[in-house]
Amino acid sequence: MAVPKGKVSKARRNSRRANWKLSMPGIVACPQCKTMKLAHRVCKKCGYYDGKQVIKIEEEKQA
User: Fold this and answer.
1) Which long-range contacts (CB under 8 A, 24 or more apart) does 47-56 make?
2) pLDDT in tens, 5-60
3) Residue 11 confidence (pLDDT)
4) What's the confidence (pLDDT) of residue 37?
5) 12-44 burial: b if 16+ Cβ within 10 Å, else e
6) Rounded Cα gap, residues 53 and 13, in angstroms
């Protein structure tokens, strides 16, 4: 059975766990309405994806 050679200190353990970073999500401009959206997803403002309308978005009324 595998047994650790010695106790790993809290500082060594915590510094090993601390070395990772979040990456920024891919944000691109929508080719239809030019608003910023997540890449490879339907635009929330106009409903287009890959040049085709996938979702029908209703216009908000100005009150």
Assistant:
1) none
2) 899 999 999 999 999 988 888 999 999 999 999 999 999 999 999 999 999 988 76
3) 97
4) 96
5) eeeeeeeeeeeeeeeeeebeeeeeebeeeebbe
6) 51
Pairwise CA distance, residues 43 & 29, whole Å: 9
Task: Decide if 46 contacts 33 (C-beta within 8 A).
Answer: yes
Q: Answer yes or no: are the C-beta atoms of 54 and 42 closer than 8 Å.
A: yes
The two structure tokens encoding residue 39? 């890449």
Q: Is 29 helix (H, G, I), strand (E, B) or coil?
A: strand
Give the total residue count for the chain.
Answer: 63
Whole-prediction pTM value? 0.56
What's phi and psi for 41, nearest 5 deg?
A: -140, 160
pLDDT of residue 61: 62
